[in-house]
User: What shape does this take?
Amino acid sequence: MSDVRLRRNEICYVTLLFFLNVHTVIGVWPKPQIVATSMEQYSLNPGNFKFQYASNSAAQLGCSVLDAAFKRYYSLIFPDYNAGPRDRHHLFEAKPYLLYIHVTQGGCESYPNPESSESYKLNVSTNQAELRTETVWGALRGLETFSQLVYQDDLGTYFVNKTEIEDFPRFQFRGILLDTSRHYLPVEAILKTLDAMSYSKFNVFHWHIVDDPSFPYQSRTFSDLSNKGAFHPMTHVYTQTDVRRVISHARLRGIRVLPEFDSPGHTQSWGKGQPGLLTPCYRGITPSGTFGPVNPATGSTYKFMTRLFKEVASVFPDSYIHLGGDEVDFTCWKSNPDVRQFMQKMGFGNYFTKLESFYMENIVNITSMLNRTAIVWQDVFDHHERCSSQAVVEVWKGGCYLCDLRRVTKAGLRVILATPWYLDQPGPTHDWARYYTVWPLAFKGQNLGALEMLQFEEKKNVCCVFDIHVSAESKGLLKS
Amino acid sequence: MSDVRLRRNEICYVTLLFFLNVHTVIGVWPKPQIVATSMEQYSLNPGNFKFQYASNSAAQLGCSVLDAAFKRYYSLIFPDYNAGPRDRHHLFEAKPYLLYIHVTQGGCESYPNPESSESYKLNVSTNQAELRTETVWGALRGLETFSQLVYQDDLGTYFVNKTEIEDFPRFQFRGILLDTSRHYLPVEAILKTLDAMSYSKFNVFHWHIVDDPSFPYQSRTFSDLSNKGAFHPMTHVYTQTDVRRVISHARLRGIRVLPEFDSPGHTQSWGKGQPGLLTPCYRGITPSGTFGPVNPATGSTYKFMTRLFKEVASVFPDSYIHLGGDEVDFTCWKSNPDVRQFMQKMGFGNYFTKLESFYMENIVNITSMLNRTAIVWQDVFDHHERCSSQAVVEVWKGGCYLCDLRRVTKAGLRVILATPWYLDQPGPTHDWARYYTVWPLAFKGQNLGALEMLQFEEKKNVCCVFDIHVSAESKGLLKS
Assistant: This one.
């Protein structure tokens, strides 16, 4: 008898939890790892709500990241509230509701890195809430979650329910790519995108800053790149001050800025300001007047790239640099007698993928010397399986991207998945739901059955990127 | 005969210049020191106009101040122009009009100081213009002037006339004061004010950041000052990040940020977050529950002020700090037995101005130790003629402000004039023209007749402030 009663209680309990979970899914997005919520609700008076550093927190007032976040989130949580002198009397008499912030590490002036913990624990109860994290970046995620828990009734009163949340990101690298070459974006548009990213807990702004159509990055070292390669040399450029502003705005939201300088293809705009950089294409035995990818057969190319990436590494604090390497068209290289001669000298035969790999290896080496981890588009891996073990491979091609993920991770390389999240390609039926039904880890790792893989996901920092291109860096954990 | 002819030529020449000057006054504001212009006009094609660092300029691409200014001024000069890919063909075929910038000193990452030269020479001629300056700050002034020379005809074509300008500021200190205590101003509003200041070549943003009604500055050292003293502790505050943003935005426009922490009066809001700082007022022999100015009779006050100003000096890079010192009401001090006892001990008798001077001397000493020049409102000078020779006195009171200027400069002190430029006081007839008919130097210096004084103005860097309060710092040049 007692056994039966116990079971009934258990069933009730499970039902209740299920009901509450439904409520939670509506409330917080992306869904936190563990949520326990209740119907117990507390009304919040904007006038007596306060963020408060816990006394033993490593971050205290003066912490640039969190002080700024408190001000921002206050207005996000209470969008229709404006305190004025007339509210003050009321404000200081009501019992305060405090959200205590406890950060165990400091790092308020640091820059987020790929290993930064973003986990947090949030406990919302009577008269106070507690947010406990290791880093300020985790605190930002927790503040975002808290802001999404607050709601208003029809009369405009603010409420929050009793809630316990433990959360950490499933993937360490959650990116959005913006292409500012095909279409120049004003700095304000980029800053707004960063704001939006923070609401969905994205943490990497992949800045595809230059490409064929234009070169808007204003280089200190090579002024003509933007002077001649931007859509306009004065208005359609990113000055050093613009770049700093983007990086600072991103940092305050726990977002890394990953710059991409794609080569040797996608560089038509580079050629305008850097004569001799691109390969002259030939029609028969005479130059046709058009240019192909970067010329991989001349030393001046590598000298130029060394100086450019030295500058890039000094301007962008992120430990990663994206080197591109996609869609290299070999037609022009094939037409050029100097390139063909170089091929012969290097013993590449007619394998232009070998020339491409030679070029990319040199560029990866340049960025390695600058203590930067290189990311390359999957083409580099496809054409050269023994690609640098340092590099991270970004999968973007259609077809079987899960097969690609398997191949790359099997080779011991870390991978970022972009293919299923090209926002300009919602398909002919404009099926936006498609973006939400991706299973980035649904490929067979060596000797790993489906069950082990699920556990794997929960335990390890397997990384996933959501770029307008991009997603899923597995940190090589799925390798054999 | 030849003499007569010569004279006729002279008369023609003078007439021409007069005519041209009329044109110029319309064009550039404030009016440059020397302008020679002509009816010869050049059409400007936005698509082929460029700013260009002269090859031997100390500032080159990568100069944060000027790179950002070029981008800003391009849009200010050609407000209705938007380059797109379709314009590019045209853009690079037309003959370019180049504005060459030549800066003899560098200092692109520095902060403007009271001695920074802002002079510039601008020469606009066929196919190119030249802007020659000592500093990047002077270059900013010249860019502003150039932008004001460009005009559009009815068809929208842009023109600039052949022009030569030599310019330098008459006064070294040209300020605008914003009061963010009586009314909290969002950071965006402050940034817009800084933009507007740059159009009129103002160079000091006097930030009257705190006062009786509220304490919006979020101090790292004393968090309760804004927590309890701001109109709202989360939304109506200036975080450290906000302050940095204001300083950076100002720097890029050649504007210094002068912080004012006014005491011992005007500090009601300070008392909320710093118990014991203000003087408890008495009714007879019992405290009335109200508070007066900062308590000058206790050591804890000076300890607090030392820590506060240490922070202020670390946050605000400007070499000046405004210490206030205006409108101290002695009623509360008189009522307090501890203050009266202190007066007796110090031998001040019943002279509360002596107590006020004692307090201000201590505060000026604190900021001197921090290598900061103090500015005080004229009350401090009025009550204590042997006021620190380090301090600069700001004249704000009505009545004969020219008399005040004379008294202060005669005492060998530098002075800033504010009185005639209170923007909230255009008089009962709302006579705005009044602000433009001020003669800040029309007072007699010792042994100087009117004629010498005019020469004086032209030769020396006599400083004038245009605050919402404020204007005219004479650098002690008019002292005996």
Q: What stands out?
A: The first helix of chain A runs from residue 2 to 27.
